[in-house]
From TrEMBL:
Substrate binds at H172, K176, E210, D229, K328. Residues 183-478 form the Glucose-6-phosphate dehydrogenase C-terminal domain. Residues 10-181 form the Glucose-6-phosphate dehydrogenase NAD-binding domain. NADP(+) binds at R46, K142. Belongs to the glucose-6-phosphate dehydrogenase family. PANTHER family: GLUCOSE-6-PHOSPHATE 1-DEHYDROGENASE (PTHR23429:SF0), GLUCOSE-6-PHOSPHATE 1-DEHYDROGENASE G6PD (PTHR23429). This is Glucose-6-phosphate 1-dehydrogenase. It catalyses: D-glucose 6-phosphate + NADP(+) = 6-phospho-D-glucono-1,5-lactone + NADPH + H(+). Its EC number is 1.1.1.49. Pathway: Carbohydrate degradation; pentose phosphate pathway; D-ribulose 5-phosphate from D-glucose 6-phosphate (oxidative stage): step 1/3. The keyword Oxidoreductase applies. The active site is at H234 (proton acceptor).
Length: 479
């Protein structure tokens, strides 16, 4: 298994992800000398294109999506690219594809960035053309199904051709620097772990807020909704990293073994523990934006916002709620995890009039990467009218702490790990299926209850019921 691939085959090579993320990431890796000199990248998709046309297509994508300070000489990178037209649904073109791929000296990594309905036919095509041998790794981009049953079908189809240790399921949140830093924070420091449990933590909040709306992904998004687009994957992975036991090693098996235990310990959600919403016209950053139904062009029951009160039923987290919320067209783009510690057991200052607030750790994942711990401190003075205490932040801005270090986008890291065969930041089958099991139960609860999304104004923090979901427990969402 430990080979560095010398061929990378991209399915969906003309798609949005390829243009926005995959080609720019591969270029950036190449520019930094991180790709093997003999790595060849073969793109394939339905469009008719020659190698030269694909190189031009790739150049246009790089010019459009690479930040100006990361564009360099493109010729060498473009020379790595070639292209094969393929209708993935019929077996016919796969032999030609195999010819184009040639015989890898060390191994082949395949990246499927296509509609999941093509996964099965593609695997069959690859098998028929002998492209599933022991030196081939298979990488799958989300969505991996629309529910547990369809995800199992996909997983079964892939498992028919590849063993689990050669399957790489992407959740791009795992490639984000600050998400990995969560593990460093928890397990490379002594001070947090003894407090990281129900005895000392009151609750956890995980927010993934976006300002964007549909972004032209009309059909996909309207079928998925926020719970399947964001909670099933990214948010549950964040939750698992926050809640898991310390793995014995930072390796694929140990980390994923611990994450899956958390995912399996998620308590089925009951009525009243979720709120869904759909945005109406409003304004974000002073700009008027249309409502979801206007963007879509028809009325719809799809949720663009969801808030959930989740529980992890194990010893460590007994009685600690995890409040999750995500939505489109919220006031700002922010992904963060808030660890709200419990109050001190006894205030020695109570008799002197001081009020206390419990400590809070805020882990900012994006756009700002920072870690803030709020501590109580005494307000300077002679305290003639009683002691005054106030919360002060202990703030680490990661870009300042590591100035000079290159901040890489998630796909750079994940593509390099794929080519080199490190599965640690990829999602294992049992994790995906545990995620779906929990999500399916929520969706069937919504169906039984006839729950439809409440409206919220674009630019607000979702329906007021989401605020109430936390407030009835005495919790305020961090904003
Ligand atoms: C994707 C979702 O998985 O993640 C999108 O399909 C969402 O709807 C995106 O916008 C968010 O990713 P990021 O990295 O911008 O937070």
């Amino acid at each position: 298994m430990s080979f560095t691939a010398d061929r990378l085959l991209l399915f969906g090579a003309t798609g949005d992800l390829a243009q926005r993320m995959l080609l720019p990431s591969l270029f950036a890796l190449d520019a930094d000398g991180l790709l093997a000199p003999d790595l060849k990248i073969i793109g394939t998709a339905r469009s008719e294109m020659t190698d030269g046309e694909y190189r031009n297509f790739a150049r246009a994508a790089l010019e459009k999506y690479l930040p100006a300070d990361r564009r360099g000489r493109m010729a060498e990178f473009l020379n790595r690219l070639s292209y094969q037209t393929l209708d993935a649904t019929t077996l016919e073109g796969y032999d030609d594809l195999a010819k184009k791929v040639g015989t890898p000296a060390r191994g082949l990594a395949i990246f499927l960035s296509t509609a999941p309905s093509l996964f099965g036919p593609t695997i069959r095509g690859l098998q028929s053309a002998g492209l599933t041998g022991e030196n081939v790794r298979m990488c799958l981009e989300k969505p991996l199904g629309t529910d547990l049953a369809s995800s199992r079908e996909i997983n079964d189809a892939v498992a028919g051709a590849f063993p689990e240790n050669r399957i790489f399921r992407i959740d791009h949140y795992l490639g984000k620097e600050t998400v990995q830093n969560l593990l460093a924070l928890r397990f490379a420091n002594l001070m947090f772990e003894p407090l990281w449990n129900a005895a000392h933590i009151d609750h956890v909040q995980i927010t993934v807020a976006e300002t964007v709306g549909l972004e032209g992904r009309v059909a996909f998004y309207d079928d998925a909704g926020a719970i399947r687009d964001m909670v099933q994957n990214h948010m549950l992975q964040l939750l698992a990293l926050v809640a898991m036991e310390p793995p014995a090693h930072f390796d694929a098996t140990a980390v994923r073994d611990e994450k899956v235990k958390v995912l399996r310990a998620l308590r089925p959600v009951i009525a009243g523990e979720t709120v869904t919403g759909q945005y109406r016209a409003g304004a974000i950053g002073g700009q008027a934006v249309p409502g979801y139904d206007e963007e879509l062009g028809k009325p719809s029951d799809t949720e663009t916002f969801v808030a959930i009160k989740a529980h992890v039923d194990n010893w460590r987290w007994k009685g600690v709620p995890f409040y999750l919320r995500t939505g489109k067209r919220l006031p700002k783009r922010v992904t963060e995890i808030v660890i709200q510690f419990a109050c001190v057991p006894h205030s020695i200052f109570a008799g002197r009039g001081a009020t206390m607030q419990p400590n809070r750790l805020v882990i900012g994942i994006q756009p700002e990467e920072n870690i803030t711990l709020s501590l109580m401190a005494k307000v300077p003075g002679l305290d003639r009218e009683g002691i005054r205490l106030r919360q002060v932040p202990l703030n680490i801005a990661m870009p300042d702490a590591f100035s000079g270090a290159v901040r890489r986008i998630a796909y750079e890291r994940l593509l390099l790990d794929l080519v080199e065969g490190d599965q640690t930041l990829f999602v294992r089958r049992d994790e995906v299926e545990a995620q779906w099991e929990w999500i399916d139960a929520i969706r069937s609860l919504w169906a039984t209850e006839g729950l439809t999304p409440k409206t919220y104004t674009a630019g607000s923090w979702g329906p007021s019921a989401a605020i109430a979901l936390a407030e009835r427990d005495g919790v305020t969402w961090h904003e």
